[in-house]
Structures are given as structure tokens and as C-alpha cells.
Design brief:
homotrimer; three-stranded antiparallel β-sheet; 3 helices; about 40% strand; elongated
Chain lengths: ~140, ~140, ~140
């Protein structure tokens, strides 16, 4: 039984859905030694999110940003406005999308489908660095 | 400590919320030997999802389909339209609902509430077979 | 390797987003002994949800309740109406938000970000007691 737990710092991203699969994998070389296990990613923020979606067509993340900004619009009549008009919609999107992912590991790699990638969903206009606690547990090969 | 990891193939389903609790359980006989543990289900697709919801009234999945198609409508002005008008809304719903579930196991069975069932949420008009990576880990009885 | 699995009963809450971080922690004293591990929380209901969001400004949960009730409005033309107008929107919100959370544990405490708290999202006007199956697994210190 192997346990790895590490905080990964993601560099500031522009608002929108940003593919970070490579950044996550690069920070977790121990993945290669797991025969069967799981990776848990936990974003320690409430105005951004993690999500898995289509990793190929660059139009998809643009459409996702448009769609989620339509579902949680800045024009709503919010009470919590002290941090700007993009803040409360960011909290709504954080709960819609969730702050964590759990992904199976098999034979040293993530069991993502061919079209699946890991997105950091940055909901703030200026989000800054984001921290992800990564936990790996499983059987070593 | 027991580890089981297996890919389950779900047969093609019509668009909508489809109860698959029995299919999942039938594919995982090892569940019966776990005293305390967890089941993780991971759908390897980006135009379908997994969700837990009410398992009794057949009107509930029909209403869920209607509700999610209203939240992510086909009438939106998407860029990613090459795979048809149901494709980009399917990606939005995939992120809204998520592609994985984690369910506790106790004394050889899933700790689902009385009214909880596992749904495959098929967002495409013709979705085809769907693959779920199931991982069980826990203490054997 | 330590395993703890316990059902936590949350007292009836008014409709809305209710912070329960303290209730959860108080019910899980074994957390303090885990060096590296995970906590999984599983709500055994389909008309409420669990979510992580901003824990400081009391306006945020009020805005979240307003926002989610706008995304899944009671005015929609649902088939499943036998339990009242708040019931089917509650099921929609349950799938939007999800019934479980997985949170990393490090050095005896949850790795929540500074602004993150655990919310019980009560979607029914009169929801009653809610049951959460908590599972802890990890390496003891």
C-alpha cells in the first residue's frame, strides 16, 4: 500500500476552462509505480473548480465558459458583491462543478478516457495561483 | 486490504437518466466480501455522466432529463457544433453532473439510502456503449 | 492502515445552505490520529446535497440558495409533483451538487482551504434529519 500526498501549485490562469492534465501528471511522478489505485485532487478554493471534459477541440472550453456564465450570470441580484461582480457567480460555479476529482490509476497511468482531460475552471477575472492537494493511494507494481 | 479494479461495459441507452444500479452490482460480486470500504465508479466519457438520484418514481428520471436539457439547452449559440446540436450541451451536462461516484460499502453491500439509485445520464441522442472503471478497496470480512 | 466508518445524523435544518463543518468534525475524533488519508462523506438522500463553499460571509449561503433555486425553479412543469412543488427541484439540485465529498486529511486535520466550509444543502421546505455515512482511511501517525 503506497500513500503519496502533495500540494501542487498551479500558476495563475485567465478566466475560463484551462486544461491542466500535463501539469498534474508532471507533479506526480509516483503515479508510474502504482499497479492499481486512485488519484484524488482537491482544489483548496471556493471561486474556482476542477472538472473533467473533452480535451481535443479548443472550442469546447470556450463553450463551457460561455455556458456556465449563462447558468450563473453576473447580472443576478446577489447580496455578496464586495469582491466584484464576478465573485458570487464564481461561488455558484464552484458548487455546480465541485472542487475535487477522483481518477482511477492502472498500470502506472490514469484511466482517463481517450477524450478526457482535467480542467482547472478559473471563475475569477484575476484568480491568482491555485493550490491542489493531490493524494495517491494504491498497490505498487 | 482488498483491491478490485475492473472495466464495466454498459449497453447503449436511449438519451436520458437510466437506472443502472443492478448492472453495476451484478458486475461486482466481490462487493459481498467487503466489511468496510468504498466503491469508486469512473465513466470514461465526456458526453454522459453518473449521478445518484431517486430510484422509485419513473417520472423522476423524465423530469431530470427535462430539467437538465433546460439548464443546458440545444438552442444556445455554441462554437463546437461539428458533432450535432446535442453534443455541446452533453459536454455541459457532463461537467454539471460529473463522471464519477464514490459510494461507501458496509457489510458486503452499498450504503445507498433507501431511495438512492445509480443513474447513467446519457446526454447524446445516440450514445453507444459506455465504459465505467470500477474500483473497490477496503477491509475484507 | 486505519479504517473508520460511521453514520452521522444531522439535525433538521431549514431550507438553504447550512454550514456543518463543526458538526462533522465533532463526530469524527479519529481524524486527529491520521497522518495522511482521506475523509469521504456520503449523504443518503436525494432531496438534499453536500457541497464545499465559502465559509465566512453569511450572505454567500443566502445567495447560493437563491442561485440554485433560480437554476432549478419550482415553476417548471414537472411530472413528479406528488410530494409538493419543492420536491422535484430538490432532486435536480441533488444531482447538480452531488451527495458526496472527499476531503484530504493531513497531520490530523482536514486539508480545507482557509475559506472552505462543508455545507449541507437542504432543498426541502421541511427536510427532517439527514444521515451522512463518513468513512476515514489512511496512515496513522
Amino acid at each position: 500500500m503506497t500513500w503519496v500526498q502533495r500540494t501542487i501549485e498551479l500558476s495563475p490562469q485567465p478566466r475560463g476552462f484551462q486544461l491542466v492534465t500535463r501539469d498534474i501528471l508532471a507533479a506526480l511522478p509516483e503515479l508510474g509505480k502504482i499497479r492499481a489505485g486512485l488519484l484524488h485532487l482537491f482544489l483548496q478554493h471556493t471561486s474556482a473548480a476542477l472538472s473533467i471534459n473533452e480535451n481535443a477541440d479548443p472550442d469546447v472550453p470556450l463553450d463551457l465558459e460561455t455556458a456556465f456564465s449563462a447558468i450563473a450570470p453576473e447580472t443576478s441580484d446577489y447580496r455578496h458583491t464586495c469582491e466584484g461582480p464576478d465573485d458570487m457567480p464564481a461561488h455558484v460555479k464552484a458548487s455546480l462543478l465541485g472542487c475535487s476529482l477522483t481518477i482511477p490509476i492502472r498500470d502506472g497511468g490514469l484511466c482517463l478516457g481517450v477524450w478526457q482531460g482535467i480542467y482547472l475552471c478559473e471563475h475569477r477575472n484575476r484568480g491568482g495561483r491555485r493550490h491542489v492537494v493531490a493524494t495517491i493511494w494504491g498497490e505498487s507494481s
